[in-house]
Amino acid sequence: MSQSTLSRNFIMDPFGIFSNRMLDEPLSTLRPKLPVEENYWPMKPWTPACDIFETKKEIVLKFELPEVMKENVKVTMENQVLTLRGERKFEEETNRENYHRVERHYGEFMRSFIVPMSIDTTKISAEFNCGVLTVTLPKREEVIAKQIDVRVN
Prior knowledge:
single chain; mainly beta; Immunoglobulin-like; 4-stranded antiparallel beta sheet
C-alpha cells in the first residue's frame, strides 16, 4: 500500500474526533441519490466544518455555522467529551415552487470531541461571530511549558 493511500485511509487525530461522515469521501458518495420528488426537502442531519488548532496555552475549535441562530446552538462538556448540537432552520415562509435547487444542508447537526485531560474544563469559552462559533479550551497551568532560569555559580 502506498504512503498516500495509507495516509488517506488512516487519519491520525490527536483530538479523538467522533465524526458522522468520512473525511476523504465526497458527500455525494455517502448519501444515496434520491429521486426528485415534490415532497423531498433537504431536512436531515448534517455536519458543520471545523478547524482545530493549538497554541501554547489553548486548543481552539472553529465551526462554520452560517445562518444558524445563537439560540439554536448548544455546547456541552460531559465526561471529557465536548459536544456541539444545533439546527439550521429553513425559512418557514418559503414557497418551494420558487426553488430550482437546494444544495445547502438544513436540519439538526452534532459534533463530539474527546477533550484531552490537559484541558481546564472549568474555563472553556464559546463565542459566536459572523457565522463562526469559536470554542476555546484553555490548558491547565501545570501542563503549560515554563521557562526555567539557569543560574551560574
